[in-house]
Design a protein that fits this description.
The complex is a heterodimer of chains A (234) and B (319).
Chain A lengths: L6 E6 L2 E5 L10 H17 L4 E6 L3 E6 L6 H13 L11 E8 L7 H7 L4 H10 L1 E7 L6 E4 L14 E4 L3 E5 L2 E4 L4 E3 L2 E5 L20 E7 L1 H6 L5
Parallel strand pairs in A: 5-13
Antiparallel strand pairs in A: 1-2, 2-4, 3-4, 5-12, 6-7, 6-13, 7-10, 8-11, 9-10, 9-12
Helix pairs in contact in A: 1-2, 3-4
Chain B lengths: L7 E6 L3 E5 L19 H9 L9 E5 L4 E4 L3 E7 L4 E3 L2 E3 L4 E4 L4 E4 L7 E6 L33 E3 L8 E4 L10 E8 L8 H9 L2 E7 L3 E5 L13 E2 L4 E3 L7 E3 L6 E2 L3 E5 L1 H7 L7 E6 L2 H17 L2 E4 L3
Parallel strand pairs in B: 13-21
Antiparallel strand pairs in B: 1-4, 1-11, 2-3, 3-10, 4-9, 5-8, 5-10, 6-7, 6-9, 12-22, 13-20, 14-15, 14-21, 15-18, 16-19, 17-18, 17-20
Classes of the chains: A alpha+beta (234), B alpha+beta (319).
């Protein structure tokens, strides 16, 4: 990457943030995701001893360091060295993870409303949702909560005006052009369309999560019986 | 090992919010796990130093006091942080000093008066299994501590038999004071350029107050609203102390249990040494902000480290 392709800003006394987009741009391009992922990988592999934490997101990477051990000039130098090694092709090898989803009104209370909004049948909504492959942009909000995108514009749906107090673990949901699986029961305002039997966050297992930032996700529609056979709860 | 024979401190009364904490959980943000760690790092560090513990030893962070423990072990402990009445078997003991306890002794923390958080450490640290490389408790995540939750009556905090040759005490002049008026230094950063000069001047010249919404995730302040010109933004990583300005213009200082990413504009981040002071603040505390450059912040940090190493710890006989 060239120096003109990114910007390094101060975040705090012990943190710098790398922006891979122009400051006001909320555009999400596959190139940007690849760069975020590649930069995260190079920094975590080759500069681990200088770094306390890396927080990759949609178009940025937060780099937390120990300001007693090194100053921000030195950290900037390391970041520039690392970013000079980021190439757009090199990391196009992200895995594609298939996740099963039981779609249906029994577990998708917002399916009918999304269908009505988009002038589609429920089956067409489901086909659009599992027809695309999604990028894992970032993980946050709660342990194991992966932000995936982008869903087909036809079924993009704004968040509920009043969030639900309880969304069950495994709920597959849409917010605008993003989609996600709730890793644990929690409050939530996304539109729920189905349920995934694969645990998204298992603190005592390795790997802890089936997906990582940079991976791609493909949803596979399964039947109610298959969902239950895979250990899904209703 | 049965519960009866566990070498531990037993929780008789947990107080309002007592949490197992260590220096924090790092390198796990890619899973969405927050850093956690002590809200007042200064008092946390002193608790371990007065017991000659390794810096990352596991302690209990007590908010508002009220913790009551029974020793099932002979050891040495220390409490630092907010002013409160500390007793062993009803006998008053000094904060910021190590004390011996024997099996069946009862340690009790009264209610915090100046400051809100205390750190109770034992010699050798509490021996609690790590989750994701840390014992720090995050209730929202259900991670860390004994069971991912705050302490409750009957919990056993495992620790070993320990002794020290003499009591260590921090000199009165070196004990931090917790003021109801704070000036927090801020390293400008993130979207600070989206706040006009006028908005920045308002931010740095106004008085804010800690609202009733303050906890380990963040401190919501009230005062003159400031506005960012940023229209929309993508969620991005949030560092400790970041000052988020939502559309209502009221600053939120993000603390140890903050969410790892967020999509509100941020004007910068509170300098860590000052953030520890905010960690002792409760509702109504007056807060002002003052800019500090990154270079000055680093100089201050290095100086503070050097100063901490030079503070003389008094060795005194056991009382």
């Amino acid at each position: 990457m060239n120096k003109s392709d990114y910007q390094i800003n101060v975040a705090g006394e012990n943190a710098l943030i790398i922006y891979f987009n122009a400051p006001d741009s909320t555009e999400l391009t596959p190139e940007t995701s690849v760069r975020v992922q590649s930069a995260t990988q190079i920094l975590s592999e080759s500069y681990a001893q200088h770094i306390v934490e890396l927080v990759p997101s949609y178009a940025s990477l937060l780099v937390v360091f120990d300001p007693i051990a090194l100053d921000h000039y030195q950290m900037r130098k390391f970041i520039r060295q690392a970013l000079s090694q980021v190439s757009d092709e090199a990391s196009e090898q992200g895995r594609v993870i298939e996740l099963p989803v039981y779609y249906g009104e029994e577990v998708g209370p917002d399916l009918a409303r999304i269908a009505e909004r988009s002038n589609l049948s429920i089956d067409e909504v489901i086909d659009l949702h599992c027809g695309d492959t999604y990028q894992v942009f970032t993980i946050g909000f709660a342990p194991g909560f992966a932000y995936l995108g982008q869903v087909n514009e036809t079924i993009a749906t704004p968040r509920l005006s009043t969030p639900r107090a309880k969304v069950p673990a495994g709920a597959v949901a849409i917010a605008d052009r993003q989609t996600a699986i709730y890793p644990a029961e929690s409050p939530g305002g996304w539109n729920i369309i189905g349920r995934c039997p694969t645990p998204m966050f298992s603190p005592d297992k390795s790997p802890v999560m089936p997906v990582a930032v940079g991976d791609k996700v493909k949803f596979i529609a399964i039947s109610r019986e298959e969902y239950l056979a895979m250990g899904g709860q209703l | 090992m049965t519960a009866q024979t566990t070498s531990a401190l037993e929780v008789l009364h947990p107080g309002m919010l007592s949490l197992v904490q260590d220096a924090g959980r790092y390198g796990q943000a890619h899973l969405g796990l927050t850093s956690s760690g002590p809200a007042d790092k200064e008092a946390f560090d002193w608790a371990n130093r007065l017991l000659q513990n390794p810096a990352n030893s596991t302690v209990i962070e007590v908010t508002f006091g009220g913790l009551k423990l029974k020793a099932k072990v002979n050891t040495v402990f220390c409490v630092t942080g907010a002013e409160l009445q500390l007793t062993v078997n009803g006998e008053p003991k000094a904060l910021w000093q190590s004390h011996r306890v024997q099996a069946n002794d009862v340690i009790e923390l009264g209610f915090a008066t100046h400051g809100v958080r205390n750190y109770l450490a034992v010699k050798g640290g509490f021996d609690i299994a790590e989750q994701f490389a840390s014992c720090a408790t995050v209730i929202r995540e259900g991670i860390g501590g004994l069971s991912g939750d705050k302490l409750k009556a009957g919990d056993l905090l495992p620790c070993s038999d320990q002794s020290m040759s003499a009591s260590l005490k921090l000199a009165s002049k070196d004990i931090p004071r917790y003021s109801k008026e704070l000036c927090l230094r801020v390293v400008l950063g993130y979207q600070h350029a989206s706040f006009s000069r006028l908005e920045q001047r308002r931010f740095f010249s106004s008085e804010y107050h800690v609202s009733k919404q303050w906890d380990r995730m963040g401190y919501r302040l009230t005062g003159p609203a400031i506005q960012s010109s940023q229209q929309a933004m993508l969620s991005e990583g949030i560092c400790l102390g970041a000052i988020q300005i939502p559309s209502d213009g009221q600053p939120i200082v993000l603390m140890q249990d903050r969410q790892t990413i967020g999509g509100y504009p941020k004007i910068g981040s509170v300098f860590s040494l000052d953030l520890a002071k905010l960690g002792q603040a409760g509702q109504g505390t007056s807060v002002r902000f003052e800019p500090i450059t990154m270079d000055c912040a680093h100089n201050e940090l290095v100086l503070a480290n050097a100063r901490m190493d030079k503070v003389s710890i008094d060795t005194v006989p056991w009382d």
